[in-house]
Design brief:
By secondary structure, this protein is α/β, with parallel strands linked by helices. The chain has two domains: 114 residues, Nucleotidyltransferase, domain 5, CATH 3.30.420.40; 184 residues, Hexokinase, domain 1 (3-Layer(aba) Sandwich), CATH 3.40.367.20. Helices cover 37% and strands 25% of the residues. The strands form three sheets. A six-stranded mixed beta sheet has the order 9-14-13-10-11-12, sandwiched between helices. A hairpin with a 2-residue loop joins strand 2 and strand 3. The chain is globular.
Length: 313
């Protein structure tokens, strides 16, 4: 048996699996629990685990060091060695949630993928996962033996480079003395709100919308919200194109995170692929990169289970 978890400030997903797949899975509101061990104890009691768990992996929304992580938006510390002792687990690995999500890419069902650009995929080439949501996550997958090695980092914090006057207005709206504007400041939920606010600043509308989900909904009837979404998608596509070239991700560029599935119809209209391909001398290469949107909400959980399973082999 193996145990996997995707731990975030809003929700925690836990699953127990064996060689046939997931045998029990449950979703918990994270804030209902004072700490993670209490939640894990409830899961343990609910599933009635019989026998030992060979390996466990928890993907955590927060920085990881020495097999421990502090959840960014909760007063929780996920301590791998302490959990192994308390719950008599043979092995516990704590990883960043985006590193777990990257491993989940290889475990995806084709039905959970929507293609924006077919490209010409190479099976043994790097893959790239980009996820815009509350923040902007980036991870690459490199072929290693029969599996994949995750190369994670803080790619969302590279500098934002405006591609036109509208994007320059966003940059000016966000710029602060002594600071810098990052890709995450623009390509994220708060970034979409900032784009909308930059349009407000130049007098294109009078009614401010601060909630990203409300901006997405308003784009159906509000031309300013629609323009904000177009700018967001172009910035997202340009960022993905830059990183695709950096990693030569001919294995595929995968869009995860919470935003892409919610704006799938607009991503399919072509603005993302157009911005992705606008690469000057290298524009001819860009049509070779497959681009796919992930609609699987349990990507991090699947990745955590994949990591746990790898340690049982």
């Amino acid at each position: 048996m193996i145990l996997g978890g995707d731990i975030g400030g809003t929700k925690t997903l836990l699953a127990l699996a064996d060689s046939t797949g997931i045998v029990f899975e449950h979703r918990y509101p994270s804030r209902d629990w004072s700490d993670f061990p209490a939640l894990l104890r409830a899961f343990h009691d609910e599933v009635g685990v019989a026998g030992g768990i060979a390996s466990a992996c928890f993907g955590v929304a927060g920085p990881v060091q020495d097999n421990r992580a502090k959840v960014t938006y909760l007063p929780w510390t996920i301590d791998g060695p302490a959990l192994a002792r308390e719950f008599k687990l043979d092995r516990v690995e704590v990883v960043n949630d985006f590193a777990a999500a990257a491993q989940g890419v290889a475990a995806l069902d084709e039905a959970k993928l929507v293609t924006l650009q077919q490209g010409r995929p190479l099976e043994d080439a790097p893959r790239l996962l980009i996820g815009a949501g509350t923040g902007l996550g980036v991870a690459a997958l490199l072929p290693e033996g029969p599996g994949w090695r995750t190369l994670s980092g803080e790619g969302g914090h590279i500098g934002f480079s405006p591609a036109d006057e509208d994007q320059l207005a966003v940059w000016r709206h966000l710029a602060r003395p002594g600071g810098r504007v990052t890709a995450e400041n623009v390509v994220s939920g708060p970034g979409l709100a900032a784009i909308y606010a930059s349009l407000e600043k130049v007098g294109l509308h009078k009614t401010a919308i601060a909630d990203p989900a409300a901006i997405v909904a308003a784009a159906a009837h509000d031309p300013v919200a629609q323009r904000a979404l177009e700018i967001f998608i172009a910035a997202y596509g340009a960022f993905a194109g830059d990183l695709a070239l950096l990693f030569m991700a001919r294995g595929g560029v995968y869009l995860g995170g919470g935003i892409a599935p919610k704006i799938l119809g607009r991503l399919q209209q072509g603005g993302f692929v157009e911005a992705f391909g606008a690469r000057g001398a290298h524009a001819g290469l860009m049509a070779d990169f497959p681009i796919r949107v992930i609609t699987e909400e349990r990507l991090g959980l699947l990745g955590a289970l994949a990591i746990a399973a790898a340690h049982t082999k």
